[in-house]
Task: structure prediction
Amino acid sequence: MFGLMQDWPLLCHRIIDHAATQHAGRQIISRSVEGPIHKTTYAELRARALRVSQRLDREGIRLGDRVATLAWNTWRHMECWYGILGIGAIYHTVNPRLFPDQIAWIVNDAQDRILLTDLTFVPLLESLAGKLPTIESYVVLTDAAHMPKTTLKNAVAYEDWIASVDGDFAFLDLDENTAAGMCYTSGTTGHPKGVVYSHRSNVLHSMMASTADAMGVSSRDVVMPVVPMFHANCWGMALTGPMNGATMVMPGPRMDGASIYELLNDYRVTCTAAVPTVWLMLLQHLESTGSTLPYLDRVVIGGSACPRAMTKKFQENYGVDVIHAWGMTEMSPLGSLCTLKPEYVDLDGEGRLDIQSKQGHPPFGVEMKITDDGGRNLPWDGKTFGRLKVRGPSVARAYFKDEGGSILDEEGFFDTGDVATIDRYGYMQITDRSKDVIKSGGEWISSIDLENLAVGHPKVAEAAVIGVRHPKWDERPLLVIVLKKGETAGKNELLAFMEGKIAKWWMPDDVVFVDEIPHTATGKIQKTALRDRFKDYVLPTAEAAE
Amino acid sequence: MFGLMQDWPLLCHRIIDHAATQHAGRQIISRSVEGPIHKTTYAELRARALRVSQRLDREGIRLGDRVATLAWNTWRHMECWYGILGIGAIYHTVNPRLFPDQIAWIVNDAQDRILLTDLTFVPLLESLAGKLPTIESYVVLTDAAHMPKTTLKNAVAYEDWIASVDGDFAFLDLDENTAAGMCYTSGTTGHPKGVVYSHRSNVLHSMMASTADAMGVSSRDVVMPVVPMFHANCWGMALTGPMNGATMVMPGPRMDGASIYELLNDYRVTCTAAVPTVWLMLLQHLESTGSTLPYLDRVVIGGSACPRAMTKKFQENYGVDVIHAWGMTEMSPLGSLCTLKPEYVDLDGEGRLDIQSKQGHPPFGVEMKITDDGGRNLPWDGKTFGRLKVRGPSVARAYFKDEGGSILDEEGFFDTGDVATIDRYGYMQITDRSKDVIKSGGEWISSIDLENLAVGHPKVAEAAVIGVRHPKWDERPLLVIVLKKGETAGKNELLAFMEGKIAKWWMPDDVVFVDEIPHTATGKIQKTALRDRFKDYVLPTAEAAE
Result:
C-alpha cells in the first residue's frame, strides 16, 4: 500500500523558485570578473535564469545535454546553473586549474555542446578550441562593452545572449532522478572520472547540509562560498543558500587574503567555506593588518585536513567557530562535519581542538563504516583504522560511461579510498589514503601520521612516506626527506627525533634524502611517482631478513 | 539521462538507524503512564523497536497492514512507531479525545488488526471492543506487574509481548512511497477522513522541519513534544528529534502546568511544542508559583492561533522565543513557522508581536498561494485574503478510500479550507475558515476578526459570527453573543463598541443573545450547528431590502 501524499519531485530549480517567492529581495552580492561589486536579488536571478533556459532551449539544448561552465563564483554563474537545470540539461563545471590537456579531455568526454566562460579563461580556450570539437558555441559571461575580440566559435556576450529572449518561459517538470550536474574527479592515476548528480541527490544533499549540526544556514545568514562552483559541486552552497533564503556573497576571481577580507567585512558575512590554503592567506592578511572578524560566526574548512593551528587561531584570536568538514566529489560532496555533539560541547582548549582535528560526523542521509581489506566491520574506538565506506542518496553509485566499473561493495557502500578511524560518538578522522597506507605484517601504518611527525623536525622542508617491499613484512615504511636549504642531517638524527612519539613498529626502516618530491597539478604529493622511483629499493632490514 | 547517484529510499526507520548509530547514548526521558520517570537511549529504543517488528511479523502483520495506537507520548509509543514502520506496516494513531463512536468508526474504517494502548484507555476499549471486529489482539503498553485483568481479546502486556522474541531481526528495505502512517481528520461535517503518510513524505517533512528557519533542532537540543503523537502526526517531532540526535523528553499522560513545568526544568528542555491551551496552563502555573524558565529557548505554538498576550508573556516575562506555527493533518502537518527573516528580525515590542501574530512562512518544500473562489491568484499585500492552498511532497493528494474525491486544484494545490493573507515577505496569516467567511456582495468578511473584536467587550463571555442569507448581499454577518453571568446588554451597545474598529460594511447586521454556543468534541465553536439554528433568521436589513 502506498501513501497518499503528493507527487512533488525534488527538482533543483524548485530551490530558486522558493528563494524567489519567499526571499524575493534577498541579495546576491558578487565581485564581478570585470571588477566592480554587483548586487542582485533572488527574484531577479530567477528571472534571468529563465532567460538562460529559454535561450538554451532555442539553441536546441535538450534533456540530458551537457553545458559546460568554466567560471568563477558570481551571480551569472548561479543564473547559468539554474537556467541549465530548469530545462533538464546538465551543468558541467570544468576546473580551470587542471592542465589544459585535462580540460580538453574532460570536455570531450562529457561531449559538452555549449561552453559558458568567464573573461579570464578566453585566452586559454582560444588555445584549446581546436581540440574541443563538440562545443557549438562559446558564451562569455560579460556584457557587450567588455566583450573581447575572440577567435572562439560563435562567441557571444552573455548579456546579449539572454537579452535576445523575452523570459516568457517556464522551468520544466522533470523526473527527480534526471541528471542535474557533472563534476570530474582528478584521479592521481588514469583519466578523470565523471560524477553525475541528479536533481534528487542535489536537493537532498542541500537539505542535509541545511541541518543545525551541518551548516545550519538560515535566512539571517550571509553566506560566502569561497570554494569555487567548479570544485566538488561548490559544497552544495549554490543550492543550500537559496534553499534557506540566505544572503549570498560571491567572491568572483579574487581569493587573496585582502580581497576575501574586504567581502567578509563589507557585507557582514556570517558563514563561509573553503580549503585551508584560502584561510592561510586570510589569516596572514589579518595578522599583517591587525584586522578582526566581527561579523563572521563560523567557517567551514575542508578539501584537505584543517591544521590544528588554523582552528586555534580562528577560534581564539578571532572568535570564529571552525567547522572541520570532509567530503568528496562523489558525495555531492559533504560527508561529515565536525560540529559538537553534547558529549563534546563542553570541552575547551586543547581538548576541544583534539576533537576538532577530526573530520566530524555525518548528517542523516550519510551512512559510514570502516572495514578491513576483507570487508569486515572494524570497531568505533577512535584508534582502529580501516577503509572508509559510505552510502546514501547523494553518494555516487557509478561514474559516467561506467568508467571504473562497479564501485560499490555488496552492501551498496562506496569505498572512499580514505582510511579513517571512527570514535564511539561517531566522529570520523581521516588517517591516510588507502593506497598510501603501509601494510606491514597485516597491520596498517599511516603514512600521513609519519609525514606530519617528520615535518616537525626543524631541518625538514618536506617529508613523504611510502611503503617499500619487504620479504618478511610485505611492506615497510621508507621516509623520503627534502631538507631545508643549507641544512644537513642523517638518517639517525631523523629517526631519533621520531622515537617515543610513535609505536615502535611504525618506525621507518630507512630514510632517503632527495632534492625534490613530485607534486600533482593541485599541489598534492604524487605518491605514485615516488613509489615508482623507489620500486626496486632494498631496505637494510630486507637484506637482514633474507 | 538519469543521475548516477545511489538509490537510497527515504525510509522512516533509517531515522532511528541514524540516531542509534550516531547518537547511540542520547536519552529519551519519559513520564511513564505508570508514574515514574523512565530513561532509555536511541540505541536501546531501536533494539526494542526491532523486537516490535519481529513480533508483529510473527503475528502475520504484513506490508500495508494497519496497527492502531491509542497512547500518550512515551518511549514505548515511539518504539511501536518504528517497529511498525520497520516492516512496512502502518502506524494508525487514534485520538482518545474523540467521542467513543468516532473512535470505533475510525478503527473500523482503517481495518486495524492490532491495537496498542496505554493503561489509561483499557476501560474505554473494553466498552468499545464489541464494536471493533477487525482487532485481533490488544497490546497494553505496560509490564506484567501493572497489567490489569481485562476482557480485551488476546490482551498481553507489551513487555511480555516483545520479550517473546529475540530481537534478531532486520528492518525491511521498502519503496519510499510505501504507506507509513495514518491519521484521521476530525471534520466538523461528515465522517472523519484518513490521511495516509508515506515513508518519503515523513522523512522529507522532518528534513524540512529540521532547517534553521523551521524548528532548527540540533543534537544539543532537548526537545519535548507535548503535542501528542495522536495529534496531527506529532508535528513530525517523533521523527525530527532522532533525525537530529536531540535528547527527547516525553510527557506521558500528564499535561497540566505543574507536570509540564517539572519536565521542562528537571531535564533542561530547550525546545517544546504544543497547542495554546497547554501553554495557558503552564503560564498560570509559572505565575502562581513565581517560577522561571531558565533552560527553555523556544516554544512552537500551533493547532489554533497563538494569542498575542501569550507570545508577549513567553518572550518578555520568561525570555523564551515563541515560534507561531500553522499546519494541518493533511500536511504532515507543518505548513509555516513564524521565525524572523532579516526584514523583520530587528523589530521589537509591539512591531515584533504584530509579525508574530502571523502564522509565518513555509520552508522549502511547501508552496502556498491564496486565490479567490474562481482560482485566480490574489496579491501578497498582507491585506487581501483568499483561499489558502498548498502543494508539496508532504501534502495529501487524496484521502483514504478516496473519501471526499478529488481534493487538488488543476495546479495540484490542496485547498486547506482556511482563508488567509500573505504579506510581501511571504508571511501568511489565517483570517478565517473558508466555510465560515461571510460573502457579502462578492467581498469577504472574516468571522474570526469580528468574533475577536466582540469578545473584547467587557460584558461578553463568548461570541460567534455567522453569515445569514440576505436578498441583496447574498450573506450578511449575524453576531451571536453569550453574555458573562449577571450582565445585560443590547444590540446597540455591542455595535457601538465595534464601530470605528472595522470597515463600515463589515458591521454585523444584527446581534442575538443566547445562553450557550455549541462546541465540537475538541472545543471549537460548532458553526454548522449555529448556521442550522439560524438558517431561517430574517435580518432587519433583509426586510428593508425586500
